C-alpha cells in the first residue's frame, strides 16, 4: 500500500531531525499533544506509546534492530501528528485529526513486523527497563546517535 499523500514531505523532514539531535523534543511534543491517558486520543494511545518507546529505545542505544526506513517512517508519522497544519488542519472540529490518525494507522500496518519485533523485545525487558522506556529523553539538543 502506498504512503498517504503529503507523507513524503514528512519523510524528508525526519532524517535531518534525527541527525540534528531533535528527536527528544519531538517525543515531548507528541506527549503534549496526546495529552493524559483517557483523553481525546485514548483509542490510539497504545500505538503512540509504542512508537514513542521505539524512538526512545533507539535514541538511548538500547534497541537498534529497526530498519532505517521503519525508523524514518515512525519519526515522520510523529512529525505529521504534531504538525497542526497538514492535509486537514487539526483545528477543524470533528475532522481535523482524521488525517493524523490515518497516517499513524498506515505506519502501524506497513511496519507491523518491525513494530511487533520491538514490542516483543520491550515486553521481554525487566519491569524497570519497561518503565524507563515510558520516560522520555530530556528535550535538549545533544549529539545524536549515528544515523
UniProtKB/TrEMBL annotation:
The keyword Membrane applies. It is found in: Endomembrane system. Keywords: Membrane, Transmembrane, Transmembrane helix. It holds the Pfam family DUF1232. This is Uncharacterized membrane protein YkvA, DUF1232 family. It is a multi-pass membrane protein. It comes from Pseudomonas cuatrocienegasensis. InterPro entries: DUF1232. It comes from the Bacteria. Residues 70-106 form the DUF1232 domain.
Amino acid at each position: 500500500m502506498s504512503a498517504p499523500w503529503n507523507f513524503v514531505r514528512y519523510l524528508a523532514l525526519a532524517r535531518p531531525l534525527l541527525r540534528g539531535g531533535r528527536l527528544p523534543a519531538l517525543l515531548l511534543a507528541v506527549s503534549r499533544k496526546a495529552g493524559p491517558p483517557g483523553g481525546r486520543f485514548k483509542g490510539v494511545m497504545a500505538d503512540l506509546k509504542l512508537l514513542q518507546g521505539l524512538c526512545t529505545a533507539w535514541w538511548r542505544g538500547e534497541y537498534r534492530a529497526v530498519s532505517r526506513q521503519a525508523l524514518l517512517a515512525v519519526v515522520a508519522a510523529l512529525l505529521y501528528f504534531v504538525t497542526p497544519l497538514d492535509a486537514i488542519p487539526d483545528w477543524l472540529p470533528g475532522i481535523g485529526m482524521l488525517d493524523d490518525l490515518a497516517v499513524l494507522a498506515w505506519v502501524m500496518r506497513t511496519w507491523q513486523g518491525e513494530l511487533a519485533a520491538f514490542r516483543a523485545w520491550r515486553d521481554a525487558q525487566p519491569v524497570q527497563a519497561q518503565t524507563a522506556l515510558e520516560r522520555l529523553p530530556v528535550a535538549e539538543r545533544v549529539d545524536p546517535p549515528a544515523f
